[in-house]
Each structure stands twice: as structure tokens, then as C-alpha cells.
Design brief:
With 127 residues, the protein is mainly α. It has two domains: 69 residues, no CATH class; 46 residues. It is built from six helices and two strands, in the order ααββαααα. It has a two-stranded parallel sheet. The protein is elongated, with a radius of gyration of 18 Å. The N and C termini lie far apart (39 Å).
Length: 127
């Protein structure tokens, strides 16, 4: 129930805001069409994207939304996924060489993963 709560705050902020908050757009992803109605029937009619539990579809949905709403470069979803796989391989090997176990790497918090992604990008996306 945390996600519906956060969405409600975000939506309320957008509706009450002036300037940038009023221009805010929200992407909602769900596994199964109309699954949101169990907790959030008030958002019926919104453009909710379904991924069916398939990470490749989820990447496509986010990519398409970022191109449309944020003017992101229209690179293909397959390229994005390939770069993510390259990052994962680089990160995994680096962490193993630093003494981490498989379980350690799986449990890293998001902020550490994001920092590693920045390092990978700054290093020229090594393979």
C-alpha cells in the first residue's frame, strides 16, 4: 500500500501546485491491466502502462514514456537493455574482486547501485 500512498501525495502535489509542480507528469506501471482498481479505483481513465511481469516490456514502457514526456533520446529499448547487462557484468565482476559474495551483491541498496552506475558511465562504460 506504500505505492498508492506515494502516488496520492504526488498527484495531490501536482494538482495543488503552480509552475513546475502543476506540469508534473506521472508514469504508472502495473503487471496486470486493471490491477490498480483493487486499491486505486479513482485513477480509472489514466494512461496506465501494463508490462505483464516482463522486464523487457517494462523497459520499453519507461523508454517510450521518457521519449514522449521528457524528450529523452529515442534510442531503442534493446540498446538500453544491452547497456544494463554490460553494467551488471562489470559491476558483478568488480564486486567479486572486492570480496563481495553473490548474496552481498543481490542485497546492495539502490543508492550503492546508482553510485556504481555513475562510476561505470564516468569510466566510459567499460565491458
Amino acid at each position: 500500500m506504500n505505492m498508492p500512498f506515494e502516488l496520492g501525495i504526488d498527484h495531490g502535489f501536482r494538482r495543488a501546485g503552480h509552475g513546475p509542480p502543476a506540469d508534473k507528469v506521472i508514469l504508472i506501471l502495473e503487471t496486470t491491466r486493471y490491477d490498480y482498481q483493487k486499491a486505486l479505483s479513482d485513477i480509472a481513465g489514466w494512461d496506465i502502462q501494463v508490462h505483464g511481469g516482463d522486464f523487457q516490456k517494462a523497459v520499453r514502457r519507461v523508454r517510450d514514456w521518457l521519449v514522449d514526456k521528457a524528450g529523452a533520446d529515442p534510442i531503442g529499448a534493446a540498446r538500453i537493455q544491452g547497456k544494463y547487462i554490460a553494467f551488471q557484468e562489470w559491476h558483478y565482476e568488480r564486486e567479486l574482486s572486492n570480496g563481495a559474495s553473490d548474496d552481498d551483491i543481490k542485497e546492495y541498496p539502490t543508492n550503492l547501485i546508482l553510485a556504481a552506475m555513475r562510476e561505470w558511465m564516468d569510466a566510459g562504460q567499460p565491458v
